Amino acid sequence: MTYLAAIREALQEEMRRDPNVLILGEDVGGTFGGAFKVTQGFAEEFGDRRVMNMPLAELAFVSAATGMALMGLRPVVEIQFADFITTAFDSIVQFAATNYYRWQAPVPWVIRAPADGGIRSGPFHSQNPEAWFVHTPGLKVVAPGTPADAKGLLIAAIRDNNPVIYLESKTLYRSLKGPVPAGEYVVPIGQARLAREGEHLSIITYGTQLRESLAAAERLAQEGIEAEVLDLRTLKPLDREAILQTVRKTGKILIVHSANRLAGVGAELAAQIAEDAFEWLDAPIRRLGGADTPIPFSPPLEDAYRPDAEKIYRLARELAAY
Amino acid sequence: MSESSLTREQKIELYYWMCLTRIFDDMMVAYWKQGKGLGGTFSQRGHEAISVGSAYALEPDDVVAPMHRDLGCYLLRGITPRRIFANLLGKATGVSRGRDANLHGMGDLNHNIIGYISHLPQSLPVTVGVAMSFRYRNEPRVAMTYVGDGSSSAGLFHESLNLASVHKAPVVVIVENNQYAYSTPLHQQMNIQDIAIRAAGYGIPGVVVDGNDVEAVYAATKEAVDRARRGEGPTLIECKTMRMLGHAIHDGAEYVPRELLAEWEAKNPVLRFEQRLLAEGLVDQAEIDEIRQRCQVEVADAIEFAEQSPYPDPETLEEGVYAP
Predict the structure, then answer these.
(1) Which pTM was predicted?
(2) Which among A55, A103, A161 has the least Cβ separation from residue B107?
(3) Position B105 in a domain
(4) Which of A228, A230, A288 lies closest to A259, judged by CA?
(5) What's the pLDDT at B4?
(6) For chain B, how many helices (H) and strands (E)?
């Protein structure tokens, strides 16, 4: 099943199970089914009442989702491209995120945001906004890297009583296939997964870069370097134990993500590892992320901006030899 | 529109809530001026008719998202003076358990109140969402919120009213046009006389009301609430009033012409209603005095309760960031 089909399946199953689950977003309803066709056919099954087209006003409809969530509904909001989430930033970080702490009313919504580039979409359609939200208390942030996790994490996010930012990789939508458990399949928020075992170094990653990291690990294995690949799956809250475990095991850490490297999630990971597991480290922690530039359009520029299997392979080999 | 179908008991009840609001406000301001307050605080002097008159038009099942000049709404909906004053002092017994300041964050879904957010008019789309959920579930409930004249300049004001109208959300939006957004006068905020005319741009009714006349506010709100409950969608009500003190306690509002304040002091909503009740023979001075006395005792009790309440335990700092 493709990554995109797994997202569809999670949405469909949850909507069938729970009448409180509804979908809001631009172009999601009617016969169109969203810019990436994730909700195609949904309006036919669930009606425009539950698959609501929204006016071009992210701030208003994300806030409206907060109002619905306060009343016990479980809205799943589609942001057409993750980049556009900035328009609704205010209501996410100021209201939804702080609400439970301020006055103890849960806000159980999910925002699905198609993130990441690599498909030549230019600066406004390729961004990875996770660090903004990881920095915000009260939110949960997930970023699946496999079809199974795309389904399992979305179901968990819908059932969670907190606002969850669900960053899906539009790079993987149709290009990644994998087994997806049929029926109810929940991947608990906050648990990383060891995607590959190894002893020489650890690659810690998530989202689109999981595939790239696994490809790099395969190549390294041909040279006798066994790289462990830890898929974080949830970026907030982080699975501290799983991170420390892989550090203790290999002592060499490479952190990879598509988002800008500077002050990205990798920076926090590196800091936590340095603080909590310094004595297990056998080499400096290395990070691979996007350059400190907007995400360029032209292929050679975008490729230079982004991490990929080749860059991961090269840096991992260096690290293994340290 | 000062006609209303209120009974004598209802009018006296309205007077009680306005009186409680004013006395709470007065005693709060005095408390702060004595240097005993914590952080900043907002007076709602002059806004009593709006917050009380509009909230009185709601049913208990309806949901309201008040702002920082709607003390009367919080009180009328059942949040006790004790919990409010404790909130002002950052005490564990306050509505937000010390998590949020002054009238911010005073939400309690047991009273169907949405906690306020300082980023006005953020409460507007949230309330529209609340109303959309009523429609989604076919519940005969209404949602109401309040914003100021300044808020109506934000893009979100437009986005929200448009969304509400498209989805026929059962929502009532009260604009408290109190002439000043912090220090910025109305003419620097907008180029129109009546904010209510903006409603036409969304295909919904826009109503202008004397915001210092509690019965007029009640009547207009009741009509809008009934309309929303009948499934006819949102209404925008502009209540004209005047902010009688500064934006917050630290602001002496020297930028406001004194004549303007004098003009509005003559329309003091509490005194005005009191005089009307006396003139109509619905109450006598003794009853008025009794109500005032009762309110004073309540507020004094609230202050004492708040002072004696403990601060939250610092050990609980990280508790309650996430809902279970």
Answers:
(1) 0.96
(2) A103
(3) yes
(4) A288
(5) 58
(6) 11, 7
Burial B180-214 (b: 16+ CB within 10 A, else e): bbeeeebeebbeeeebbebbeebebbbbbbbbbbb
Report, as an integer, the average pLDDT of A242-269. 98
Q: Which two tokens stand for residue B232?
A: 């006819």
* Alpha helices, H only, A119-226: 130-134, 147-159, 208-222
Helix runs in A47-168, H state only:
58-70, 89-90, 97-103, 130-134, 147-159
The ipTM, to two decimals, is 0.95
Residue of A102, A141, A142 to mutate, testing the B interface (most B Cβ within 10 Å of its Cβ): A102
Q: How many CA atoms lie within 13 A of A219 on its CB side?
A: 16
- Whether A257 sits among the annotated catalytic residues: the reply is no
Query: B79: left (phi > 0), else alpha (psi -120 to 50), else beta?
Result: beta
Q: pLDDT tens across B120-152, in order? A: 899 999 999 999 999 999 999 999 999 999 999
Residue range of the domain that includes B186 = 8-310
φ, ψ of residue B128 to 5 degrees: the values are: -60, -40
Q: What is the DSSP letter of B316?
A: G
CATH number of domain containing B265 = 3.40.50.970
Task: Kindly list the catalytic residues of B.
Answer: 243, 247, 255
Residue B163: inside a domain, yes or no? yes
Residue B318 maps to a domain: no
Domain count, chain B: 1
Q: Out of A71, A90, A100, name the one closest to residue B323 (CB).
A: A100
Question: Is B61 among the domain residues?
Answer: yes
In B, which residues are within 8 Å of A91 by CB distance? Answer: 122, 125-126
On whether the CB atoms of residues A52 and A66 are closer than 8 A, the answer is no
Residues facing B64 on adjacent strands: B113, B144
pLDDT beyond 90 at B3:
no
Query: Can you give the pLDDT at residue A72?
Result: 98
